[in-house]
């Protein structure tokens, strides 16, 4: 093969590789079809979580929501949460979200970005906060968790919580960051991380969650 042919071959390979990478970046992820009985087991690491395991299991589905319960011996057993069909949390324990904690907006695609706000109400005290979030699907990554190795779409969330005082003015209470690795074949995320900081910048909480086992019907 002469020098000209070698150069042409290298150029063709580069073009094909670039097109493949572009196609991967443009890959779209549809809303998952979740069935009753689908379950996931996660292990959490945090300085403020008493039970290191969560075992959400879908108990009921309809065209609007998933109802999920915990099968572990955690404090949330029997009342794990209600989500909309995009896996956005609507209620968990004594906390509720209006309209939902919108982080996922299917179809998902790398590079897409949107902003959203919602209200979070804590039951016993009936205190309400407004959370404003900036969400971006960063790109596809290889993730290694106890359940295996997966190709996941990483979603980055930056948020600010506001609380309205008696004078009617909203006051920042904390800022938080979430990283979520979503895998279409799992129908959920395989890894999540949370980090929250007070208005003084000090770390107030941090939690890491990884998938240990998945059982799909």
Sequence of secondary-structure elements: HEEEEEEEEEEEEEEE
Largest sheet: 13 strands, antiparallel
- Separation of the first and last Cα atoms: 54 Å
Number of strands: 15
What is the overall shape? globular
Write down the domain tally.
2
Overall average pLDDT:
83
Strand content: over 45%
Strand order of the largest sheet: 3-2-15-14-13-12-11-10-8-7-6-5-4
Low-confidence runs (pLDDT<50, min 5 residues)?
A: 10-24, 73-78
List its traits.
13-stranded antiparallel sheet, mainly beta, 15 strands, 1 helix, globular, 217 residues, 58% strand, 2 domains
Q: Could you describe the 3D structure shown?
A:
- This protein is mainly beta.
- It folds into two domains: 1-28; 39-54 and 102-215, no CATH class.
- Helix content is 11%, strand content 58%.
- The protein has one helix and 15 strands, in the order αβββββββββββββββ.
- A 13-stranded antiparallel beta sheet has the order 3-2-15-14-13-12-11-10-8-7-6-5-4, with no helix packed on it.
- It is globular and about 50 Å long.
Write the layout of secondary structure elements.
Layout: H1 3-25, E1 28-29, E2 39-46, E3 53-54, E4 56-61, E5 65-70, E6 81-84, E7 89-92, E8 95-101, E9 108-109, E10 113-122, E11 127-145, E12 148-164, E13 170-183, E14 188-198, E15 203-215
Antiparallel strand pairs: 1-9, 2-3, 2-15, 4-5, 5-6, 6-7, 7-8, 8-10, 10-11, 11-12, 12-13, 13-14, 14-15
């Amino acid at each position: 093969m002469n020098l000209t042919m070698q150069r042409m071959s290298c150029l063709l390979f580069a073009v094909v590789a670039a097109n493949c990478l572009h196609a991967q970046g443009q890959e779209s992820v549809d809303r998952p079809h979740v069935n009753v009985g689908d379950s996931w087991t996660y292990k959490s690491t945090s300085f403020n979580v008493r039970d290191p395991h969560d075992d959400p299991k879908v108990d009921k589905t309809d065209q609007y929501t998933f109802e999920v319960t915990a099968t572990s011996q955690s404090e949330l057993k029997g009342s794990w949460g209600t989500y909309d069909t995009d896996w956005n949390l609507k209620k968990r324990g004594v906390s509720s979200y209006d309209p939902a904690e919108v982080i996922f907006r299917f179809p998902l695609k790398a590079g897409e970005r949107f902003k959203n706000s919602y209200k979070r109400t804590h039951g016993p005290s009936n205190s309400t906060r407004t959370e404003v979030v900036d969400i971006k699907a960063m790109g596809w990554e290889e993730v290694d968790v106890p359940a295996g190795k997966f190709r996941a779409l990483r979603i980055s969330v930056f948020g600010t919580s506001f609380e309205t005082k008696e004078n009617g003015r909203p006051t920042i209470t904390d800022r938080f960051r979430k990283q979520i690795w979503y895998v279409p074949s799992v129908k959920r995320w395989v890894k999540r991380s949370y980090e929250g900081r007070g208005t003084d910048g000090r770390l107030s909480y941090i939690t890491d969650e990884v998938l240990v086992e998945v059982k799909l019907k």
